[in-house]
Fold these 4 entries.
Entry 1:
Amino acid sequence: MLMLPPLAEALHAAAGLIAAVLAGRNFDAALARAGLAAPLRAATMDLAYPALRAYGRGDFLLGLLLERPVKSPELRSLMLVSLARLEARPDEVHTTVDQAVTAAARLARGQFKGLVNGVLRNFLRRREDLLALADADPVARWQHPAWWIARLQRDHPAHWEAILAAGNSHPPLCLRVNRRRVTGADYLDQLAAAGIAARALDDTAILIEKPLPVERIPGFAAGLCSVQVWGAQAAAGLLDAHDGMRVLDACAAPGGKAAHLLECAAIELTALDADAPRAARISVNLKRLGLAAKVEVADARDIGAWWDGRHYDRILADVPCSASGVVRRHPDAKWLRRESDIAGFATTQAAIVDALWRTLAPGGKMVYATCSVFGQENGAQVEAFVGRHADARLLPTPVAEPLARSLATTVSTTRDAQPHDLPDAEHDGFYYALLQKD
């Protein structure tokens, strides 16, 4: 096989991953299947993620630059990756074009080298006019599907532009300090000693100013901290579990929120998930942190398969959802999702919370949580649940400062009264509702 220079090799590998996504495959699965060595893997991800976030823009530009559609998915994907890098690295345009042409040598015995060179140089010549046209097209400008944009305009009329912009940004790296092993202040000192710039968001949440691999995070392997976005850290506080309580974390994999609950209180925790490989990660993560829980592999809706008949004092219903609030971490999702999927998620969510409600003790509390910003999965879902269950009471969802300052909250209706943790520079998008059983 033709050996390529490092950038050309990464461009070629990134094009293969994007071609897999456009064929309907999950990015993480395609990346795992590629089996890339560590240095190439990192370089490939640095190219593929921005190109996937900007797919709507790249697809629009290629429509203007190509006289006819290309049949090769890898060729099209190579041009998408290259266009994204041309926009992101305007000081390296000549290198990008040269290395993209070199990468094209691997495709169909090099017969596409001239086409790649011509398309990219044509973009550079017409750049100002082409980008003006892209900015006038909603999908190209906001880099999200048209249906996604329309839903956000309806669900968040005051915030939809900011949500879309955040969805196209590089995600922040936030840590949660394991309070059973170290204080937030002491861990900040350890980061400073290692030359890692960071700042505290609250007592246990720390934002790393420049993302880095977990292997370079001091004490990570020893269980001093976990990677967990700030908004996700609100769940444990809302659930308000105390020592001695029986607590269920449904849909718990890979175990971040379960671990946080155990760090906060000495509870009897059951962590439940339907996916066996993902459930195995719960035990691995808990072991690293020096924590323990009962891990069950079962569908939360089938309580006969996992429930022992003893009621729980607290339940975290972190239900499957569209993941529209964390799309910048999974940019393939916005292009693989279809609008009809949202109704499917809503049906599954309703079945899960209805089943879980039967296992909650009278007086107990359940937190309904999603990483979605779509109302059908959030406020509308909770409103319908309360309407189905006469013994369910919707409680205010107090969130400790300073996280509360980031919550966009309205109080006009039951549907709007719960906080959306909208994505911005510091955290991703989450929704929480606190329910009590009378």
Note: The longest strand covers residues 360-370.
Entry 2:
Amino acid sequence: MARKWLNLNLAGALHYITGNFLDRNPVFFDPECCKVFLDELKKLNRNWPSKLITYVLMPDHFHLIANPRDGRIKEFTGQLKAVSAKAIVRINSRFVFPETDKGYQVWQESFKDVALWSGWMIWQKINYIHANPVKAGLGRSAKDYLWSGFRSFYSQGDAPLAVDHEWWWPEDSEKLSKAMKEMGWYSFEKRR
């Protein structure tokens, strides 16, 4: 069984999310599966609402940075995995997914979420996401890899899904302060 992550719902935080396909199946080698996943992510971002900072689809997993307005990252990611699984099963002809009483299991049960609290953390994860396909040998440069938000992020041409250049909601600083107090976390400045 996959490790369960803490995955805290923290309104106002950017969230770095990783989701793996069941048994690390390389489903995203199929461009049609990539397209339907991004279509579902686009619909979810519009209907939730959420801001998409950047993303990458690797053969057997995805990474993205999102900021759901309500901070409910567990529910947001659960919904993304549910709707994308249905769409992938509908168009997939290569992989056989196990059937459960809830439908087909396409994704590992758990996912990894890291709330990003500092500029350093945010940029470290953005750079990691953009460099991931190059490190894996899937492209010569981040700009060349189709299934990434790199080109949209740096305004260097079309990407399959545009990212948000405005990352924060107007009320984010208020929500972050409240969440940090409730959890007993205090900013560095307050500890001086």
Note: The chain has one domain: 14-191.
Entry 3:
Amino acid sequence: MKQSILIIDDDLDLLNLLKTKFEKDGFDILTALDGEEGLSLAQKKPPDLIVLDVKMPGRSGLDVCKNLKEAGSTKTVPVIMLTSKNEEMDRILGLELGADDYLAKPFSYRELLLRIKSILRRTASKPLKQKRVVKLGELTVDNVNHEVWVGKEKIFLTLTEFNLLATLMESPGQVKTREFLLEEIWDYNDGVYSRTVDTHVQRLRTKLLDVGHSIETIRGVGYRFNKA
């Protein structure tokens, strides 16, 4: 069965170009010219992935992303946000709202395709090679059902956030560099995207409530998960 991609962008020329290219690469494509229509399409039949432009008239891509990640039917659908080249704040906000990745315009189709394939590979991949359930203090992680608990409270994480946490917990006390995490979680090996790691870690800490401090920053290197 073909994997489906929903593209939400008010640039009709770009929309048609991406639709043609993605279909040639074997994807089923849905398109929307504004955020309202995109949300409606996503909620009627959640796609395997969403490509979402930030700057749109009416409902912005950031607002659409927030709504997607709050709705039960779409909260686990990966989102790649398209941002303006110089709008770093949009990229940061998008990641904080739950986007899985971002790409600055103008971009190459090949780069976008590589990002999409990387995310879809992670979505379809088997759980990390760990014990089914890992419990460290108040934190419990079920690697089969992708569930996380802090005490008795269930915590919702995006797929990227879950894989980041699971990777850090594979070896408590061991430092994982940003470069390692980029390659392991995002399939990137270019340090230019290190802000992606930092933003996801910040969001993960917030979601983990009282145990968020267990993820320690090793300045200039990366992060490690502490048992205590």
Note: The helical segments are 12-24, 35-44, 61-70, 88-96, 109-124, 159-169, 178-185, 194-207.
Entry 4:
Amino acid sequence: MVSVLLIDDDTELSKLLEEYLQSEQFELHAAHDGPSGLDKALTNHYSAVVLDVMLPGMSGLDVLKQLRQKSSVPVLMLTARGSELDRILGLELGADDYLPKPFNPRELVARLRAILRRASGSGASVSSQPVHLAGVELYPESRSVTCNGKPVNLTGAEFDLLYTFLRNPGKIISREDLTQAALGRPMSPMDRSIDVHVSNLRRKLGPYDGEQERVKAIRGSGYVYLLPGEQQ
């Protein structure tokens, strides 16, 4: 069974999810405050962490910030419905995806499975052949990336996003297609997740010499991965 850590102070929700997830072949462990959740996440091996934003003792965003300093475990944030700021901050801090509360347990399972597919390398990375392009080297089997010879630490979503870009240099890719490729789900109305992941990827790779950005937004169309000196 797949081991998942839920960090949420709602004990009733934890009990309900434990029963439901067990039927879906997930083993759920729970923590009900920020400090104990962070300690469990750092001292045990979990396939994924489901992390609520609102927690006693330490906010979920602070837990995520400290967790990302030491661990790349996939994280699904639970946010209040309509709280776009929390979603954006969570993604900027390294969450793989988010799910607004209240949610259907089936949707939680679908999001977890999409995250785990990416983490296991069975998402967008369908080929085992490394990709080399303009100083960036991507290795699907190890899910590792270097840029100008230096390792780049990417989340699962960022890795699949970069893989999609590197396979389609110079081609405009819609936000809908990027969301499906990087997050394994359709893009929801008013969903800015992919924009935050693109922004994180840009920051981690840095620009080309001469300050040209690698990824350019095309208004009303999507994004394009440019080669050095290329204009769009």
Note: DSSP finds eight helices and eleven strands in the chain.
